[in-house]
Amino acid sequence: MLSEFDLIKEYFQRPRHAAAPPVALGIGDDCALLAPTPGMQTAISSDMLVEGRHFFAGADALKLGHKSLAVNLSDLAAMGARPVGFTLALALPAAERDWLQGFSQGLFALADAFNIELIGGDTTRGPLNICITVFGEVAPGRALRRGAALAGDDIWISGTLGDARLALADLRGELAQPLDAASQRSAAARLHTPVPRVELGMLLAGQGIAHAAIDISDGLIGDLGHILKLSHVGATLDVDALPAGDILATRDTALRRAYSAAGGDDYELCFTAPASAREAVLALAGSVATPVTRVGRIEAQAGLRLVDAGGAPLELQLAGFDHFTS
Amino acid sequence: MLSEFDLIKEYFQRPRHAAAPPVALGIGDDCALLAPTPGMQTAISSDMLVEGRHFFAGADALKLGHKSLAVNLSDLAAMGARPVGFTLALALPAAERDWLQGFSQGLFALADAFNIELIGGDTTRGPLNICITVFGEVAPGRALRRGAALAGDDIWISGTLGDARLALADLRGELAQPLDAASQRSAAARLHTPVPRVELGMLLAGQGIAHAAIDISDGLIGDLGHILKLSHVGATLDVDALPAGDILATRDTALRRAYSAAGGDDYELCFTAPASAREAVLALAGSVATPVTRVGRIEAQAGLRLVDAGGAPLELQLAGFDHFTS
Q1: 3-class secondary structure for chain B?
Q2: Which parts of the sequence bind Mg(2+) 3 (chains A, B) (predicted)?
């Protein structure tokens, strides 16, 4: 039977990768050690994924490895921090080789894409639970804070929204008109293997162009709401300007509005920047091949006003996802 | 019903504490920010506690709050790092106010004792699971590494061993002679509210007196084994010299030997130091009122040799705890 130490050694310890700067010491001691780049701040975020809550029982292990790290990297992206490493704490019902092989493969493929390393963690037996804590670096005063939006700022969205929610609805059998096989594959990729907008976040922070940012994990309206609350501002959001995902864009208006405005699992960035920076934002996003769309404006008046393409008020019955009330 | 955001705000967010150096930004954004003390390394450790595995279902929430942080601080102690902050990811079956009140009280009482703050994390619904990642600071080259033991070093143990295991055995009804009420209370305190040896670890590292160290969480023999393996050395351990806990010391020799050598949940430090440093070790430990006991010696010959008080070889059928094979 696979012991805890064999499990770590076989699937998670990669000695030749473990100590590239700023990682001074990786897996295998009581603690990992980071040697922070002089003058830089360390950005830290922690996300916990639970079976039956964040993913279905029996979910593909490789995709789960990818997504577990992706949602954490998305938090670094929203701060504008450069990823440097992460810890993984893992509770498993049993030490199954197939699962471990797939999970670690998905995890390390994404880690390698961002040139970061697993530096420590914990494994134990228990109901499947994946807790990753990720570390990044950002220059003092450069981090993109939720509370930094200013009245007059444009509201921008990276990429597209809603296809992840569409895939989930399809999996749950909630769609009156189910997805065809090709659409299913395309939408499911958005749900299971989101790509965190790390380069965009780093450039927005590094060049001092954006004011506030957040990553869209619980649905745009809920997440934008955090920016508004912490910045003590309001906003008008053009719901019809929201960039719907490729598959969602083919569905009816009501579904498109609902899932792009309040879908969840998008892992795109919502950020604000002064109107004077419009061309700079577009140039910067273009330099990392990330589409960005202007979808509204920050205003001094509190509250979030949803409007349609013609500027008329929209009433959508929507709310951000909450783990304890839904 | 208590929402995720209300839950965090009500039980875990303490604004006036959240941004003392080196914490530049606490709870409430996409990431927390640390501003590392110039020239210092960041020590990081992550532990996951699962109901039914690390604690009984229905365990006292206040003690659980204490222990969840204590086991992480113990890892910092074993590295000799000064604690600076921690993140908490928490999966809960339901948002129960009584439980949250107790858990956060136990957690913050210990955090306050070490003047550290909760800087971020995650909450979700799911089978009870507590994942804490802790951060500390240590000067480059000073961290107490598992692989740094040298032949000729003394082996030292802080405090006493085995009472936590004794309490567990009693709770499980494994003892032929159960504990009386007073003994139960005393031993249970060692099991449920361990006190991490942070000051001792910091002094041992800061003054450069110790070579290797580890915290004893899975039983001394198993944990010392990690030092031996990574240091490429062996050792002779005087099992009868092991400092048994107050209650364990009153039991028979076989139980005393077994639980002090391979009990688990002790959260004491096992460290090695050159024989020339004996007086310095005793003086340093005395300065933080932490008893330390010399229990053996590191040797060039591989393997761990257990002996009794007379120096005769002892055969104990013992092994460190493993989450996937036990």
Answers
A1: CCCHHHHHHHHHCCHHHCCCCCEEECCCCCCEEECCCCCCEEEEEEEEEEECCCECCCCCHHHHHHHHHHHHHHHHHHHCCEEEEEEEEEEECCCCHHHHHHHHHHHHHHHHHCCCEEEEEEEEECCCEEEEEEEEEECCCCCCCHHHCCCCCEEEEECCECHHHHHHHHHCCCCCCCCCHHHHHHHHHHHHCCCCCHHHHHHHHHCCCCCCEEEECCCHHHHHHHHHHHHCCEEEEEHHHCCECCCHHHCCHHHHHHHHHHCCCCCEEEEEECHHHHHHHHHHHHHCCCCEEEEEEEECCCEEEEECCCCCECCCCCCCCCCCCC
A2: 30, 75, 215
